[in-house]
Write a structure and sequence with these properties.
Elements: E1 5-12, H1 19-27, E2 45-50, E3 54-60, H2 70-81, E4 88-94, H3 101-110, E5 117-122, H4 129-142, E6 147-150, H5 159-168, H6 187-202, E7 212-220, E8 226-234, H7 237-244, H8 249-266, E9 270-278, H9 286-291
Parallel strand pairs: 1-3, 1-4, 4-5, 5-6, 8-9
Antiparallel strand pairs: 2-3, 7-8
Region (G5): 151-153
Region (G4): 122-125
Region (G1): 13-20
Amino acid sequence: MKMHKSGFAAVIGRPNVGKSTLINALIGQKIAIMSDKPQTTRSRILCILTEEDAQIIFLDTPGVHKPKHKLGSYMAKAAEGALHGVDVIVFVVDVTEKMGPGERYILKQLASVRVPVLLAVNKVDCIPRAESLPVIANYAKAYEFAGIVPISAREGENLDGLLAEIKKYLPEGPQYYPEDMVTDQPERLIIAELVREKVLELTRDEIPHAVAVDIEEMTTREKGDVYIRAVIYVERESQKGIVIGAKGALLRTIGERARADAETLLGAKVYLDLWVKTRRDWRNRTNALREFGFEDY
């Protein structure tokens, strides 16, 4: 009988190194939201890859960073908590940037873990191979990795090699989840994140981290189409005007892009009803954090 493996792999790294892009590429479906803004991922998300010989449960974590508010503290705890109770850790770094304080902080945390750590050297498509070698050598000197795998999450380069390395360290066992399940997150949470992703894409720098999205209603109608009412929360009235845009133009664009992703996810026609409201300083308010799904608070 062919051996089957099942286990948990934590994907860690500082903000904006491509963790969510990597997980989406491995899963083959958009689950984790992506943005060029740092600290896009706010919660720990399970993403499940089922293959004939193995089931890998990836933990997509917030980028490790110094917290500046209660939300930041939650994100830091979620990232650091992912180092425990897993079978293997995948430390993602950006090969186009030299090792900095953020990476050294993570390496210091890794010193206490008792599971294998793989180094996924991302964005190798962006620079000549000769330039990447000194960067990789510096990491190899700094920590005894179980394996070092150069990849390009965006281009899908060498992802099979990374999966092969991960599988080496998974225990034998049956599947934990049904083979058609790709995440533990409810659909309404994923859709809220898709809306937030579009806000991140389309607004200026002062907006992104002040945004939360709450799905107030999600109903399947008689003909099979889905009605979704979502509220985009910002912290200041001035931010509300930016998200809505001149004559509502930006909000319409956010809605069009988010609706297209939601229809792909749900396999149905979606009517997305978007609203924008102000909730002052919500990132430092315990009740608001609970309401928006940050259960640790």
